[in-house]
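Pilot study result, target chain (92 residues):
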Amino acid sequence: LFPIIHHPNMKRHMKALAALAGIKDNLCYHQARHSFASLITLEAGVPIETISRMLGHSDISTTQVYARVSPKKLFEDMDKFIKATEDFQLTL
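Predicted structure:
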């Protein structure tokens, strides 16, 4: 799906991006994957199944390690759920 960037090139790109963002710590490859999965795609509403394919995972449980749901996303999704179910009637 995306071109493969070799590890040394990825490190160089990450170092340049960190400098632009004013980040003084060294960034690692896994931080980039976590950021991509959680902050960039999941926060934008991309389904986890799609994120899994983007990261090249064959098992979605691997993606779940990288993709963390933020409190903001949790509240947004809960609001969607409440709006979608406000007309439901419980009958016993």
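One observation from the pilot: The helical segments are 7-21, 29-42, 48-54, 60-66, 71-85. A full batch analysis is planned for the follow-on phase.
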